[in-house]
Amino acid sequence: GQQVMQIPQYQHVQEGEDFTTYCNSSTTLSNIQWYKQRPGGHPVFLIQLVKSGEVKKQKRLTFQFGEAKKNSSLHITATQTTDVGTYFCAGPFFVGTSYGKLTFGQGTILTVHP
Amino acid sequence: EAQVTQNPRYLITVTGKKLTVTCSQNMNHEYMSWYRQDPGLGLRQIYYSMNVEVTDKGDVPEGYKVSRKEKRNFPLILESPSPNQTSLYFCASSRQGPTYYEQYFGPGTRLTVT
Q1: Residue A66 burial by Cβ neighbours in a 10 Å radius (0-12, 13-18, 19+)
Q2: pLDDT, tens digit, 9 for 90 and up, residues A58-72
Q3: FRET partner for A95 with CA separation of 20 to 30 A, picked from A2, A3, A63, B100?
Q4: Coil, helix or strand for B84?
């Protein structure tokens, strides 16, 4: 079946260090979404990538979508304590007659030490 | 305020006692979905609904039922809960299917089955 693998599972950094999480799909994706979940909270949408090779930035966050549209990454420059949380990627898969199935990666739990 | 609501937020029950977790959204979204979150496994989709009266299985549908009689509501039914269904459950909705549309998540329901 369709799988979305995400690494690493955990990342501990000192405040100010950079952080990257990687996402790989077993099949080509139409688009990929990224979410952040703060401790004790619910996932919140960050961004969506659609085009092959696309790069998008949100302040210190840089998102990339691979040329083959099978992998993606999220890079945070100079982490802050407010970046703490779990970061998920998610991709829709075609089942039956629609792209209704949404598969999430396992998530990367980011801890930032002040 | 645009939101997805879930009830109850916390539930402790016993094996075999039927229960329903409600989910409601006020954004007139067509797509709704249920996920369970377990440590190390990320978010796994249980069921999704592309529109009223249209539901389909996600990755882990066993032991769950859903219905979509109205656009705003998407209840999750556990006919005979078992301890392996102890988990954190999230309902989510989006304007249309997950391709190109961000998911809005509810606050979560923490279920314990003893």
Answers
A1: buried
A2: 999 999 999 999 999
A3: A63
A4: helix
How far, in Å, CA of A47 to CA of A78, rounded? 19
Residue A28 CB-density burial (10 A; 0-12 exposed, 13-18 middle, 19+ buried): exposed
Q: What is the mean pLDDT of chain B?
A: 96
Alpha carbon of A45: minimum distance to chain B alpha carbons (Å): 6
Residue-wise pLDDT tens digits, A16-69? 999 999 999 999 999 999 999 999 999 999 999 999 999 999 999 999 999 999
Q: Do A105 and B42 touch (CB under 8 A)?
A: yes
B20 to chain A nearest CA, in Å? 20
A91-102 pLDDT per residue, tens: 998 877 777 899
CB A6 within 8 A of CB A21: yes
Out of A31, A50, A88, closest to residue B43 by CB? A88
Q: CA-CA distance, B4 to A65, in Å (whole number)?
A: 29
Chain A contacts to B (CB-CB under 8 A): 1, 6, 9, 30-31, 33, 35, 42-45, 48, 50, 88, 90, 92, 95-96, 98-107
**Res A93: pLDDT:** 87
